[in-house]
Amino acid sequence: MVISQQDKITVSQTVIIVTNFLLGTGILILPRTSVEAVKTPDVWLSVIFGGLVAIMAGFIMVELSREYPGKTFYQYSRDIIGKWMGGVISLLFICYFLATSGF
User: Fold this and answer.
1) Hey, which of 46-50, 55-59, 91-95, 98-102 has the most confident mean pLDDT?
2) pLDDT tens profile 31-74
3) Which of 17, 35, 49, 60 has the most CB atoms less than 10 A away?
4) Are both 53 and 27 inside the same structural domain?
5) Dihedral (C-alpha) 22, 23, 26, 27: value to the nearest 10 degrees?
6) Where would you find the membrane-spanning parts of this chain (predicted)?
7) Sign of the CA dihedral with 42 first, then 46, 32, and 102 last
8) Does the residue 1 lie in any domain?
9) pLDDT category, 25, cuts 50, 70, 90?
10) Distance CA 65, CA 32 (A)
């Protein structure tokens, strides 16, 4: 099945979707569960800091996808840091996503 250009999600649309998901989860769920676990109301600082780190990571991903159009993370990581180390980093990402998707 061939997907037309109009049916594809652009990088900007993907960033907006992921950012909204992260903010929605962070604002609605994370503070309550964090406060219950830590027993202090100052957890909101950690939630804000974590959200900023996630947004910065999203911007880095967008810039890399613009710098290397048409390439996957695996392909441009090998171009940036070398064949062997890029493969190791890609394998670590695969393991991370497999582990987090299982829970």
Assistant:
1) 91-95
2) 677 777 777 777 778 777 877 887 888 888 888 888 888 888 88
3) 35
4) yes
5) -160
6) 12-31, 43-61, 81-99
7) negative
8) no
9) low
10) 35
